[in-house]
Amino acid sequence: MNSPESPDPALHVLRHTFGFGAFRGEQAAIVEHLQHGGDALVLMPTGGGKSLCYQIPSLLREGCGIVVSPLIALMQDQVQALELLGVRATYLNSTRSAEEAAAIEQQLLAGELDMLYVAPERLMTPRFQNLLGRARIALFAIDEAHCVSQWGHDFRPEYIQLSILHERFPEVPRIALTATADAATRQEIVERLALQSARLFVSSFDRPNIRYTVVEKDNPRKQLLRFIRSNHEGDSGIVYCLSRKKVEETATWLKSEGIRALAYHAGFDAATREAHQTEFVRGDGVVMVATVAFGMGIDKPDVRFVAHLDLPKSLEAYYQETGRAGRDGLASNAWMAYGLQDLVLLREMIEQSQAPDEVKRVERQKLDALLGYCEATACRREVLLRYFGESSTPCGNCDMCLTPPETFDATVPAQQALSTIYRSGQRYGAGHLVDILQGRATAKVTERGHQSLSTFGIGKSLSDAQWSSLLRQMAAQGLVGVNEHGGLVLQESCRAILRGEAAFMARKVRESAPGGASSVRR
Ligand code: ADP
Ligand code: ZN
User: Fold this and answer.
1) pLDDT over 80 at 46, yes or no
2) If phi over 0 gives left and psi between -120 and 50 gives alpha, with beta otherwise, what is residue 46?
3) Which end of the chain is more exposed for a tag (fewer CB within 10 A), N or C?
4) Average confidence (pLDDT) over 100-128
5) Residue of the nearest CA to atom 19 in ligand 1?
6) C-alpha to C-alpha distance for 106 and 2, rounded to whole angstroms
7) Residue 23: CB within 6 Å of ligand 1?
């Protein structure tokens, strides 16, 4: 036990410099590890308190802590906050004049800085590398470390070169931090930043105050309006859309419905973007309709909801985007409207891209994981957390927990579907397969001779919509895969179902949603 007179130095800094009573979660362990020269990879959700993990060791160790951050706005905010606490911090990026930069370099060499925030492209210049060689460095902190991932949504080419830090300054401890990294991205960070011997600190990614809901797209705008009116009258929120056009249309429409909506996308000039962002952050009850260009680095604690009118790129992206809700810890909503068209579109985007095969393979896996979330028949939070390698129990605060869907034993229909896929040669899309199951002798069916398959017409007891939904659920659970032409193919895991060794429970389609689930045809 520490006596009051000689507290642990880290705790002393936490209390006296930052004014906090105690460390949160893994902070204490991370700070101690860094303080003694260890490398660390820190995965902590947004709002978890990553900054202190490198700020305190920077103050405890001799020399200046160098913080690499891709976000200019955030850099300036953090430095300002540190200055107010009496910490000697500053930043170097493209907004600095040559004279300012030269003065900062002098301060660094003279040992007058506790912390220096640097943009990655600046850090890698020969001039700055040379400077680092002559300065005393407490540690390197690499913030938003997932930017090193070429397959991620925030890839920054300059991040790739950051492994040089380790080669040039092997004795300086490094800490890489991110709020968003699935197992594959984590591995990529370790490899690209040469963090093989770093200690891994993973905090729980759960955001218990966020309620997750996915609705099947029917009339998305109306659904959104209903969602806002019944849950978030007068609240601040973010609505994400895929295209700039849709952003503008949706914002205009919400405004016409009396909602204080603003639009944001990269097509607006800087002044407009800045004005809208400021109004959102400072104002009360502004709904920002935006592309994913909006959000990174926005520090607004009372965002009450994040809505998606289009599917995000991946579950990671979804987690990050929805993570902007409820940073103050109060009840918030993550709401998404999901339609099969979104999925088909994203799949086509992957297949038609010029990316190398292995990139496409990873993108496909990411899309499948997202699909698994949308099609979940049980707790969504469990799906989300499992994706980040965390196990959990049903949360009681998602749509699936609150109003469990009706399910039925679909083992026999699943077997019928699997056998139809197999017998027709594993290359047809859902529409054609449903035609066979329903016993419809369409031109395509007769042309391929599929009316003589033993499964022709055996599925008449289910509706088209239920069949489409069933096939989608089977795809979501990995029993079948989808090839690049939209054809369904069997996967290893379907064997147990075919042999009757495992049951397949499926969600019932609500037939009252016309046109919803049956749009699988292409
Ligand atoms: P992140 O970078 O992980 O999103 P921040 O470092 O910005 O999170 O911290 C989020 C908020 O939590 C900040 O307002 C910060 O001051 C606060 N915070 C961090 N650690 C502690 C702590 N140990 N005690 C109290 N507040 C903390
Ligand atoms: Zn749940």
Assistant:
1) no
2) beta
3) N
4) 95
5) 49
6) 39
7) yes
